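Retro notes, item 3 of 5
We never archived the inputs for the KG4 complex last cycle. Fixing that now. Sequence and ligand:
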Amino acid sequence: MSDTIILGIESSCDDTSAAVIKNGVLLSSVIASQAVHESYGGVVPELASRAHQQNIVPVVHEALKRAGVTKEQLSAIAFTRGPGLMGSLLVGVSFAKGLARSLDIPMVDVNHLQGHVLAHFIKESEDDDNQPKFPFICLLVSGGNSQIIRVDAYNKMTVLGQTIDDAAGEAFDKVARAVGLGYPGGPKIEKVSHEGDPKAISFPRAKIADGVYDFSFSGLKSAVLNYLNGCRMKNLPINQADVAASFQQSVTDVLVDHARHAIREYHMDSFAIAGGVASNGVIRAAMEQMCREEGVKFYHPSPILCTDNAAMIGAAAYYDFIAGKRAGLDLNAVPNLKLGE
Ligand code: KG4
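Structure as it came back at the time:
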């Protein structure tokens, strides 16, 4: 059988990425992050779109070069259809259409959320068999989403619960800004938290009465803001590291609690984490401990495959492609695409 070589393209937010996947095995992955947003404390959509336009051609060239693959050898082009920022998504979708048309090869559209989950199926080598077995529970925690998902097949995923307000990553970013750490918040909170005491301040662990798997992080964010305002009004010193560590512990406890509940209720023997927040070392360690206690196998992609990347888009597309999925040239970006759409 001939090889299936897929070029994956990801441009849903502020990372321009391209990757080459051959028969499910990762040959190359290139990510251009956008420093332009740092001085604004968050992603500026218009600037993200412009940076994608500047980055996409060199990033794709580099991915092909590192893979040792010519564009004429490609079987298909995969791209992120949504969810994400419209202006950012459009750059990837338009580029994929142009390249696929010029090479006269098919395209495969990928749901970004499905891509995050299928990061677990990126093979590092041909004999890499460290992938979760279906069914399993996946906790997807990123800048735009926080979901507990039951995964039954590459393209059969059921959302058991999700955030009713802020995503976990969004809470990290907002709290980081409030304590003066800047953007991107997640890695900065994690770094400074190593010098802090996670028990120093008691922040809330929200429970949703009629949704055991749902999350709410906006109350936690407000509790941190209230704490900071209270200190400032009373002229009390603020220990940045203690605030960061206590906030991070509160998020970790809620995530672990929900994951444990789902593992027990659905009698799963595998549990996986995905998304940018899943690169957090404290959260990973807490999940690993919980999985040990529950006697289930724990899967965690390397941190670089947790944050946005095209390798996960190429891997998701590979399984769709061999199952016969193709995207038409009339297909467009969908900023609020849901899992399963
Ligand atoms: O998956 P991702 O790159 O983009 C989305 O699809 O949303 O996730 C980005 C989010 C940001 O909110 C960022 O602050 C958070 O993931 N993040 C982290 C860490 N690294 C990235 N959150 C906590 N700890 C980290 N180490």
